[in-house]
Amino acid sequence: MFAWSRLEDRSARGIAAFVGRAIRDGTLPVGTRLAPVRAIARELGVSPTTVSDAWRELARNGAIESHGRNGTYVRLPDPVLAPRRYRQVTDGRAEFELDLSTGTPDPALLPPLAPALARAATRGDLTTSYADDPVLPELGDILREDWPFPPESFAVFDGAMDALDRVLRETVRIGDRVVVEDPTFPPLLDLLDVLGAVVVPVGVDECGLRPDEFATALRDADPVAVIVQPRAQNPSGAAFDPERVDALARLLRSSPRTLVVEDDHAGAIASEPRLSLGAHLVDRTVTILGFSKSHGPDLRLAAIGGASGPIDAAATRRQLGPGWSSRLLQAALAELLVDAHASDQVATARSRYARRRLHLVDGLRKRGLAVSGRDGINVWVPVDDEQHALVALAARGIAVAPGTPFRVVDPRHHIRVTVASLSDSAADVVDAIDRAARRPDAVRRA
Ligand SMILES: Cc1ncc(COP(=O)(O)O)c(C=O)c1O
User: Fold this and answer.
1) What residue's CA is closest to ligand 1, atom 12?
2) Are residues 350 and 328 part of one domain?
3) Buried b / exposed e across 97-125, counting CB within 10 Å, b at 16+?
């Protein structure tokens, strides 16, 4: 019989979290048949609806499944299905003349890695020991100097997604609520699904999370974490301004258990300044700084600095796996960060991307489309009918990403266009996107 005696919170959420933990720690093994709802309700002195709500929550996370009259059973989320949103973005990309679907930087605008790698490989200070500091001291010094707040702890992981994965694994338990921006990066939603989190979507405007919706989410959901992209938000192009940072920090003060996770994945190619909630909430913010967009996706490095609890837990857990991110690559990154020529190349990339996005955004706005966002390599375009837009663009040899995988609510009304490789004067592309964004009958009338 399941030991309910340690259950403290008898709300649906409390019951879901308690059972979720029991599934996670193996007390309730996969395949266990749960007692009937009414029996549990009687035992706990709550209404059957409360237990049903808890079950619904767990079923949504894939932690349990109902076999109808045969009962409800413990299961684990199917890992094969895990990256389903991500796959919707990446699958089925045939050969297109112009691929604006990928979210990746323009290879022609990346600083060359070869000289930095060659210099790194001939340094005498690279490790031969498993016991060395996982962060190359020189890289740590360079990055700490510019960090937007004094980090309690600091680590380097294999890209922003690896950092998110490792920190969230240490933070989120089945049934925990996590606030995300809506729209957001599809692999993040997939990751939260795998962790069994209950996603609480909050809309974004040009400056990030909408404070009114965020206030409601904090009050109603008491989330364990909120995950934001402080600038170059993928896909919306939002970026914090100082007022928004103040407003969000003020709201977070009344939710002391909520960890802030900032995913600054675009890093040095973002045009907007590096603002952080960590300046206000230093002991419960972790900020990830990515180098994939600025220095190359295959450099596969991101830094993370901030609250020691989650960062140290993630770094310690990694000791049981790869232990550290290649110090050879860390040294190459350090070489690139102090190299004036490489820095100029990154600055050039940043201004090219800004020009390319402005070209598309201005062009679409002039044609009457309500395109918002102000930073990064992605433009979030509202369309009448997503499927029609994808097909209409494909017919002209242009690939863009469907908006639905980025959405928690209100799918099917956007496409995401990556402008990284768009030529600076692509009037025909602007025209094609504008036409594809409208219903076929509206185009015919125009
Ligand atoms: C919001 C966001 N986070 C994380 C990533 C992944 O970054 P990385 O390549 O550093 O893992 C991306 C990639 O596009 C992204 O858009």
Assistant:
1) 265
2) no
3) ebbbbbbebbeebbbebeebbeebeeeee
**Those residues with Cβ within 8 angstroms of residue 169's Cβ, 6 or more apart along the chain or in another chain:** 195, 314, 317
Which pLDDT tens digits describe the chain residue by residue (446 residues)?
578 888 888 998 889 888 988 887 788 888 899 999 999 999 999 999 899 889 888 887 778 887 777 888 898 655 555 677 777 777 766 678 899 999 899 999 999 999 999 999 998 777 678 888 999 999 999 999 999 999 999 999 999 999 999 999 999 977 789 999 999 999 999 999 888 788 999 999 999 999 999 999 999 999 999 999 999 999 999 999 999 999 999 999 999 999 999 999 999 999 999 999 999 999 999 999 999 999 999 999 999 999 999 999 999 999 999 999 999 999 999 999 999 999 999 999 999 999 999 999 999 999 999 998 999 999 999 999 999 999 999 999 999 999 999 999 988 899 999 999 998 667 899 999 999 999 877 655 44
Protein residue closest via CA to atom 14 of ligand 1: 103
Gap from CA of 168 to ligand 1 centroid (Å) = 15
- Residue pair 19/40 in contact by the 8 Å Cβ criterion: no
User: Residue 59 Cα, ligand 1 centroid: separation in angstroms?
Assistant: 29
Q: Which domain holds residue 355?
A: 84-108+342-445
Instruction: Compute, in angstroms, the gap from residue 19 CA to the centroid of ligand 1.
Output: 33
Distance in Å, CA 160 to ligand 1 centroid = 5
If asked whether residues 299 and 347 sit together in one domain, one would say: no
Cβ(193)–Cβ(82) below 8 Å:
yes
Q: Is the CB of 304 under 6 A from ligand 1?
A: no
Please state the atom number of ligand 1 nearest to the C-alpha of residue 163.
Answer: 11
Pocket test for ligand 1, best of 229, 234, 378 (most atoms within 8 A of CB): 234
Ligand 1 atom nearest to CA at 301: 10
- Kindly state if the Cβ of 263 falls inside 6 Å of ligand 1: yes
Question: How far is the centre of ligand 1, averaged over its atoms, from the C-alpha of 187 (Å)?
Answer: 9
Domain count, the chain: 3
Q: Is the CB of 185 under 6 A from ligand 1?
A: yes
Q: Is 297 in the pocket of ligand 1 (CB under 6 A)?
A: yes
Q: Which two tokens stand for residue 168?
A: 């969230």
Distance CA 166, CA 111 (A): 28
- The token pair at 137 is 């001291």
Instruction: Report which of 335, 280, 269 is spatially closest to residue 306, judged by C-alpha positions.
Output: 280
Asked if 154 and 237 sit in the same domain, the reply is yes
- CATH number reported for the structural domain that contains residue 154 in this entry: 3.40.640.10
